[in-house]
Write a structure and sequence with these properties.
heterodimer, A: 49% helix, B: Rossmann fold
């Protein structure tokens, strides 16, 4: 991507491994002098803290996890994304809003609630959706969807962990079709 | 986002209707006393914690099974908020979202389970605290209110009304207000006492709007402790037979569904 205006490139996927590869490729496509970096999930570290919480504290629901995702994203927007754009540099956000919305829809939450939740996030100038190979999607990763799959107490849709990942991927494919984002296969 | 068509999601919608009906029947069963949710709201220094304790003691003596839940108290989220408050690193959005997550976790882990068991839940601050403080920080009321959906409406909300001057006097009599308590993240005032006075004035203005919109029961918190307590007892007796609010059906059904408690 050779552009003179700063861009926010959103990269979304169910697989953290696929996200990392696609985000690096997206960053490499930007002129070195005009790029900032990659804004990753859990830059704020709050999920890391959540991951070591006592089991007696109770498992979070998918809804609670998504509110926390939004809190982390607000942190990323404030400290990584907005400053880069203000400085005239392009930035890659991997994952961004669509991964979280797809996870929430797969978990049975309403689209209206999810849209409001992420209403503060600036719209990306370019969207890329990454479809991982099935084997890769099933791998244990350390991204948000994997975290949600393993840690959420239960979902409204009452799907298993594997089904949640498949449903999230289906919602992401639908989003790519609707929004006209690029669908990459890794 | 388009919804990929599939059978499991359609089945889940049918199940949800059944669960909603079950929730309705549980809370409107005329043969058993239902759970009640009573919220104590008001600015810092309004004496609501004192009243909450007196109220709990009285209810227990009257034979009620009582559970208390406080604002920002979940074992899961509270440590995350505490560490970020300590380094003054929260923006208004992050502050709002983290408190909303803490609230949701307590709704699912403490409040709804206790109400389902027909207990009385006393909430020392409820979602209105989040609304008043977040809007005072400049956030949009509609955005914040939707964060708390599906909404759980208390059966009674006691609002302890005091002036900004009284709140400031009572708080600063014993200690210096903390950074976020004083709203120093949004007032840009270095002196915590002066910042508190400005911020609490905004918070009280928001509380007073919410009191009108959501029909709080206002308690004059400038009256004596004993007078307030007896007034609360009387108001509780008048209010405890209110019918269950149908507004709560979505929140209860979601909780039943997520925890698998409907089986």
């Amino acid at each position: 991507m050779r552009t003179s205006t700063p861009a926010l490139i959103a990269v979304d996927s169910v697989s953290s491994v696929a996200l990392t590869s696609a985000a690096r490729a997206a960053l490499a496509s930007i002129d070195r002098r005009k790029r900032s970096g990659i804004s990753h999930w859990d830059a704020s570290g709050l999920f890391e803290e959540l991951g070591v919480a006592d089991e007696n504290a109770g498992r979070p629901s998918a809804r609670t996890l998504l509110i926390l995702y939004a809190a982390d994203l607000a942190f990323r927007v404030r400290w990584e994304i907005a400053p880069a754009l203000t400085a005239g540099r392009s930035v890659v956000a991997a994952p961004y809003v669509d991964t979280a919305i797809a996870f929430g829809r797969a978990a049975g939450l309403s689209g209206g609630w999810l849209k409001n939740l992420f209403g503060f996030a600036p719209p990306p100038s370019d969207r890329r959706f990454v479809e991982p190979a099935r084997r890769q999607a099933a791998k244990t990763g350390d991204g948000f969807v994997e975290f949600g799959r393993d840690r959420a107490t239960g979902t409204l849709s009452q799907l298993t962990g594997v089904e949640i990942v498949d449903r999230t991927a289906a919602y992401l494919r639908a989003a790519a079709k609707r929004r006209g984002g690029r669908m990459l296969k890794i | 986002m388009h919804e990929p068509p599939d059978e499991p999601m359609q089945r889940s919608r049918v199940d949800l209707r059944r669960i909603r009906q079950r929730a309705r029947e549980h809370f409107t069963d005329p043969s058993a006393r239902r759970g009640l949710l009573v919220a104590f709201e008001g600015p810092d220094g309004s004496g609501k914690t004192t009243q909450r304790k007196l109220f709990k003691t009285w209810l227990t003596a009257e034979g009620y099974d009582v559970v208390t839940t406080k604002w920002n108290s979940s074992d899961l989220i509270k440590p995350i908020i505490k560490s970020r408050k300590a380094v003054h690193s929260l923006s208004p959005e992050e502050f709002s979202l983290l408190h909303s997550a803490d609230f949701r976790h307590r709704v699912e882990q403490i409040i709804l389970p206790a109400l389902w068991q027909r207990r009385i839940v006393i909430a020392d601050r409820f979602l209105f605290t989040g609304l008043a403080r977040d809007v005072a920080r400049g956030l949009d009321l509609d955005w914040v209110l939707k964060l708390y959906e599906p909404l759980v409406w208390p059966d009674l909300v006691f609002y302890f009304s005091i002036s900004p001057a009284t709140s400031g006097r009572r708080i600063t009599a014993t200690r210096t207000p903390l950074f976020y308590e004083a709203g120093q993240d949004v007032t840009d005032v270095l002196d915590p006492v002066e910042s508190y006075q400005r911020f609490i004035t905004r918070v009280i203005r928001e509380y007073e709007s919410l009191a009108l919109i959501f029909k709080f029961i206002t308690v004059d918190a400038e009256r004596s402790i004993g007078e307030q307590h007896h007034h609360i007892r009387q108001l509780f007796r008048e209010g405890e037979r209110r019918p269950w609010s149908e507004w709560n059906v979505d929140a209860v059904a979601e909780w039943l569904r997520v925890t698998g408690s409907e089986v």
